[in-house]
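Reopening this one. Same input as before:
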Amino acid sequence: MVTTKGDSMKVRSMSVLCGRVLAVVLGFAALAAGQQFPPLTRSNFTSSVPQGFGDRQNSWPWSMEWFNGSLYVGTFRSADCVYTLGNGVYPPADTDVSCPLDPNTLALQAEIWSWTPATNAWNRVFQSPQDLLIPGTTNQYVARDIGYRGMRVFTESGGTLAFYVSGCSSKTLHPGLPGGRLLRSTDGLTFAPVPQHPGTLLGNLGNPCFRGSAIYNGKFYIIATSSLNSEGVLLEASNPQLGDNAFRVVSPPNMAVSEVASYNGFLYVTATGASGFSVSKTSATGTPPYAFTGVMVNAGYSTSATPNVRALSLHEFNGSLYVGGLSTSFKNGGSELFRIHADDTWDLIVGQSRNTPVGMKTALSGYGPGFNWLFNISFERMEVFDGRLYLGTFDSSDAFHAYNNPTFQNLVRPQMGFDLWVTTDGARFSRVDGQGFGDLFNQGVRTLKATPNGLFVGAANWFYGLQIWRGIP
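Same output, byte for byte:
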């Protein structure tokens, strides 16, 4: 068959027309689903700041929040130095990590940075004071806050819109020092700790760290942990700005709370357990400790010998609550993802299919633990942007970059770096990127925040400093 130039032009014109018709159809479908744009791809993301805000010791963007028309990021300082010191091994052997020989000279002053759309500029608005004398020394001092782990905007009883930041101290590294602080701001420029006087509940807790928080029925809830990187007790306050005895413990004594969220008229929490994490809910009424009703146990009746022991992310999407698990090691397999419905029935979305007392649970996404990558040991953060759910992982394979084993590196290197996934229906997932946005040292998506100016991704990188990426449709 001979094709003429005119025939080719007709075919090309028809292809263009069909493409335009398809785009219009897909566009109407997206609008009908509450979406304005196609899902973000890797090409939609650009780097937003110099790495580490110009300082490699700004290891993780540990928290992120939108407040008064600006984006705020709280940093965790010298992460690998801190963790190895806490484990009794110092300095780290990895040559891509920079730690001083004397751990008392670690640069641990946590910082808060803000980005304003009008100027497209980042500014450091707060840095922790360094005024705590290290026990056993005469002239060496450490920062009051070494990391800011959580952020929450709360409307106080008088109508004031306040910004609360969860602080972590170096108490686990230097026993005898004060615990974590809870900072408050009303303008995003000046931050002050809420009162924690000795003799009061908040003053006597001595918890090294505050972490996740939630708002429920007009009250402020926050987790006070027993160590720098662990679970703890759930606190409640109607007037958190008062600090001290305005807070009270509302979780039962045997509950090790990891995460908290408001959903479907209840307060949901995840709790750590050796047989797998659990999910419970409460109406937060009556006399504390509140009564909690179990929703999930043993990481969804996991049949694994090493189930996900924690769940670090909770996020509502399309009327359901999504729960992202954490595995303690790649040797234990990857993370699993669950979906809880309003009637507290639940689905397994990502993970190992299994038979349970409540019926067969098959991974609806078709993916096994970690999206079929055992080094994805944590589903760190989830966020809804433009009607879709985005999920970021923590990929532990970065730890093997320094091993002088070419065979192993050839197997692992192609997928080093965090994953970012997206779903429109909550079950079928597509991978936005699987290589840490081009940097194998980008371990995890530590923060995700949807804003009127795009989706921001905060990448944890304890080797050369955090990265902030902005996704614009």
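So the earlier flakiness isn't reproducible anymore. For the record, Helices lie at 5-32, 79-86, 201-205, 298-301, 369-372, 406-412.
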